Amino acid sequence: MNTDHDWITTPITRELLRGALDVERTEHGLLPHRLPARARAQNTDGQLAMAESQPSGVRLALRTRATALELDTLPTKRVYAGAPPRPDGVYDLLVDGRPAGRGSVDGGNTLTIDMSTGTAAVEPGPVGTLRFTGLPEGSKNIEIWLPHNETTVLVALRTDAPVAPAPDPGRRVWLHHGSSISHGSDAASPTTTWPALAASLGGVELVNLGLAGSALLDPFTARAMRDTPADLISVKIGINVVNHDAMRLRAFAPAVHGFLDTVREGHPTVPLLVVSPILCPVHEDTPGPLAPDLTGLGEGRMRFVALGDPAERASGKLTLNVIRDELARIVAQRTADDPNLYHLDGRALYGEADSAELPLPDNLHPDAATHRRIGERFAALAFTGDGAFADRHRAGRP
């Protein structure tokens, strides 16, 4: 701990957090969750358990006169067997809504994943400290956005002046669900994932239920969305259903209806935007499953390949083009009774021309530049003009 300041230690409580649906008290501190305990209890998949505990969109929101702060955390860092080390997770500091710093935390637990065998093991590690100094004088709102891709236990918060929860900014709350692309995949930092960028441009508060590998129309996720206060809701559906080869067309359409029905139970009139997949050339007309090509893993390169046969579409196997057509049909059908339901073709966010200019590095996930492009496109299409989330839509929270 730095001793150059007269530190005040403030207990980290749920009241200091935004973007988390639940918190868990562990032996080390407070672990934010993006799914509630009831949903977690119904899940048996390790990938989803890891994804929902990674705090994409979760941030500490403080009101303080402090000019220095320290945050002790216990991160869990992922290591892939046979691959070079991954970069540490990034914390973004905002002061009165403007970027004011960025940092990482050393130490932490190590989760080693062997993609060739599908096994994983955790090695415990020490708590680390994030430090920001030289902050502006006077009262201000501070946000510390937690790493979007690194499970983070919040251990201790120290400042050189008292802190309180930041006041409610009075902005509309946007609840979004999607895959690893919405989770943040290879974005540069937590405030530069495409949903965080779009939220900033749209002037809304983000609750991000982007769950890497896990946008599979799970009923417990729909119930979590149903029960979460929101003014705006979007669901981005398709890529995980295809790359997991999770269902056929016969099951997909009723599952989409059921997911939307559940969300509507809690939000009957809130603007609800259904977003189909962005362009992903390996799955446009080729079904899943998807598998990693590990031949370049030792050099830090990995690509994904689709293992399905395009001819299998005739038996109901799903591709991205099939899913886009089906989502458009479902939304068109439902809008007869649901005037606050909207549809956005994901290729308007990232399409053929974008793929030629900014190809997906691993055939699946956008890089940092592409996250920025998708976020800016979504903000323009959803939050302005005739967009589903334009200011004219003021249904309000249930």
Proportion of beta-strand residues: 25-35%
What overall form do the CA principal axes indicate? globular
pLDDT averaged residue by residue: 95
What distance separates the N and C termini? 45 Å
Using only C-alpha atoms, the radius of gyration works out to 21 Å
Structural class: alpha+beta
How many helices? The count is 10
Low-confidence segments, given as residue ranges, are: none
Overall number of strands: 21
Largest sheet: 6 strands, mixed
Percent range of helical residues: 10-25%
Question: Could you describe the 3D structure shown?
Answer:
It is a single chain. The protein is globular and about 70 Å long. The longest helix has 18 residues, at 249-266. α4 (194-202) packs parallel to α10, α5 (219-226) packs parallel to α7 and α7 crosses α8. The chain has helices at 37-41, 46-53, 180-183, 194-202, 219-226, 239-243, 249-266, 320-334, 352-357, 368-383; strands at 8-10, 17-18, 22-25, 30-33, 59-64, 69-80, 91-95, 98-103, 109-114, 119-123, 128-132, 140-145, 151-159, 163-165, 173-178, 205-210, 232-236, 272-275, 290-293, 303-306, 341-344. 24% of the residues lie in helices and 27% in strands. It has 398 residues and is of the alpha+beta class. The strands form five sheets. Strands 1, 6, 9, 10, 11 and 13 form a six-stranded mixed β-sheet that branches. The N and C termini lie far apart (45 Å). The protein is built from ten helices and 21 strands.
Short description:
The chain has helices spanning 37-41, 46-53, 180-183, 194-202, 219-226, 239-243, 249-266, 320-334, 352-357, 368-383, and strands at 8-10, 17-18, 22-25, 30-33, 59-64, 69-80, 91-95, 98-103, 109-114, 119-123, 128-132, 140-145, 151-159, 163-165, 173-178, 205-210, 232-236, 272-275, 290-293, 303-306, 341-344.
